[in-house]
Design goal:
The chain is mainly beta. It has three helices and 16 strands. The strands form two sheets. It has a 14-stranded antiparallel β-barrel.
């Protein structure tokens, strides 16, 4: 019979309690889901994509769309650094840095770093039995690749190293992978269809605790520019987008994402969307956003309205296309 020290039991109790709470996310996240213990991998990043309700799987040529479909990289033809940030509920902070690098006919590579911190969290098994305090943080490093293998068909892949630190030496790491497709049915038709499989990999174990499965997702999306036939010069645009997302371990469990983006002269963009999230039951509500493209630089800001029951979130992104 293997003996386990009291200190080890306490450490593993802390791990189990935090994983059941969604790795620092609200209790409602961990309580409802069958696989959302590592829910931080689904945290939204990129103000443009948030502004259109996270309906991101079919938005071509968009570095912000890589977390939802790496095939969106395939049509980027410029060097692009991107920085995104938002403050979540309580003391949560989310930052993402990414760079897209085209390499001619070989395709487009991108590297990214997603850093998340959650402040100090007090854990207890009951109101009178504290387990201690922790200062959790997460780091996700990604390497992505996208390429147009046919004139109207592209593919994309992402490999991610995931590290979660609860406090001190309470850590764990794993690998996860994304893969996606992007297809335009006809050259003359401004319709794009995207599909991706996200967060596939072995579970995440903290300090030897039982591994928590990754939040694997299947996402399908479509987008259409409804004004392109009315004014071919492209002075105005109206992009409509919709995504459907399902849990890989139970395809009957799904969410819907809807969005629209109106553009004027390629400079000003107004956005709105709606999130009908059932995989994380607190995430249902609207989104609004604004974008400015001034020369080679782009600024996006978006706000989620009623999506999270703990408070609305404001997302900001800055990018340069060089």
């Amino acid at each position: 019979m293997r003996l386990v020290s009291a200190a080890t039991l306490r450490r593993r109790s802390i791990c189990a309690a935090l994983l059941l709470a969604g790795l620092g996310l609200p209790d409602a996240v961990g309580a409802q889901g069958f696989e959302d213990e590592v829910a931080f991998l689904t945290a939204p990043m990129g103000a443009r994509m948030v502004g259109i309700g996270r309906a991101a799987a079919s938005i071509r040529g968009e570095l912000q769309g890589v977390p939802w479909n790496p095939a969106t990289l395939g049509t980027i033809d410029y060097f692009e650094p991107l920085a995104s940030h938002y403050d979540g509920p309580l003391d949560f902070r989310f930052n993402n840095l990414a760079v897209a690098v085209p390499v001619g006919s070989a395709g487009v590579f991108a590297v990214s770093a997603n850093v998340q911190s959650f402040g100090e969290i007090t854990l207890s098994s009951s109101p009178d039995v504290p387990l201690g305090t922790i200062t959790p943080s997460n780091l996700v490093l990604g390497l992505s690749y996208g390429r147009q293998i046919l004139p109207r068909f592209g593919i994309g892949l992402t490999a991610k190293w995931v590290r979660s630190e609860l406090s001190g030496d309470l850590t764990g790491d794993t690998f996860a992978f994304d893969a996606g497709l992007l297809w335009r049915p006809a050259v003359s038709l401004p319709l794009d269809i995207g599909a991706s499989v996200l967060n596939v990999g072995r579970g995440l174990s903290i300090d030897g605790a039982e591994p928590s499965p990754l939040p694997g997702r299947l996402r399908l999306g479509a987008s259409y520019d409804v004004l392109s036939h009315l004014q071919p010069e492209g002075r105005f645009s109206l992009l409509l987008a919709v995504d459907l997302e399902h849990a890989l371990r139970d395809l009957s469990a799904g969410s819907q994402f809807f969005g629209a983006e109106f553009g004027a002269a390629g400079i000003l963009f107004l956005r709105g969307g709606y999130i009908a999230e059932t995989l994380i039951d607190t995430n249902t509500g609207g989104t609004v956003g604004v974008g400015l493209a001034l020369g080679r630089f782009r600024f996006d800001i978006a706000r989620e309205l009623g999506v999270n029951q703990l408070g609305d979130e404001t997302h900001i992104s800055l990018a340069a296309r060089l």
